[in-house]
Amino acid sequence: EPEEKKIALELLETEQAYVNRLHLLDQIFYTELMKEAKNGKTVPEEVVKMIFSNISSIYQFHAKFFLPELQKRMEDWSSHPQIGDVIQKLAPFLKMYGEYVKNFNKAVELITIWTEKSLPFQELIADIQKRKVCANLTLQHHMLEPVQRIPRYELLLKDYVQKLPPESPDRDDAEKALEMIFMVAKHSNEAIAEMERLQNLWEVYQRLGLEDDIVDPSNELIKEGPIQKISTRNNSTSEKYLFLFNNMLLYCVPKVIQVGAEFQVRLRIDVDSMKVRELNDTQFPHTFLVSGKQRTLELQAR
User: Fold this and answer.
1) What is the pLDDT of residues 193-248, one digit of tens each?
2) pLDDT greater than 70 at residue 118
3) Nearest 5 degrees, angle CA 211-CA 216-CA 217?
4) 256-297, pLDDT tens digit by residue?
5) Structural domains of the chain ordered from first start
6) For the chain, how big is the Rg over CA atoms in Å?
7) What is the C-alpha separation between 62 and 151, in angstroms, rounded?
8) Alpha carbons 116 and 265: distance in angstroms, whole number
9) Distance in angstroms (rounded) separating the CA atoms of residues 174 and 164
């Protein structure tokens, strides 16, 4: 059999297994948890919806559209050896994965929280996980599958394009399809990166005590770390902490009693008007001056 047909068959087989996995997530886990939530026995309905995000749309799309199209194409392979056009039809719909992928960490966190909070929730999940269809794997494990599916398409299609003979009628379509899948994967990765950025930013804000004028989702944290402040009056140093954002430098002191916030902001210097100058101080190596509108700090790095 030609190499490209083997890859197309692998795509079909993995798609079949994937649709079974989606069926398990949507028609079994989601449906049964939702039924119990409606009876008020386990967790609020909202929580179940938040855990499963848009899994139903993803399942319907693959089960009712993509898998049947692939099956049809593989049956007609002898007269129509092509999959590029089918994948081009699929690619735009894969953007709906962005929502699922962005929600994934939150979903796993919710499962953990509610497993501890609600015994009926924990028991129902454990009961479903014991069934043969789960193959001894946890709900979280099954939920990871959609996150990994687009990169899998990308790899299979890359392989397929490489193995196509130069004169193949599928070359143009397959290359175009690969380009589309690549864009979707990029879109999905950017969604994850943005989510992680906001998550990290929020954690930093919590460490700073959520001061109103600092909390802004568009800020980017560039670097943070301990620093020594040099006091020229008595030639000593004391431990401080810096957070450098794209638009401001926060000069902080670590709090002795760490309830809530970890640091207290002593000074905020806007990057726009900030000046930094290195010093050649033999007594204190690695020192530099940071000056803003209000004041100048003499700092020593490690």
Assistant:
1) 877 787 788 888 888 887 656 767 778 889 999 998 888 777 788 889 999 999 88
2) yes
3) 135
4) 776 677 888 888 888 888 999 998 877 788 899 898 887 888
5) 3-207 (1.20.900.10), 221-300 (2.30.29.30)
6) 27
7) 16
8) 36
9) 9
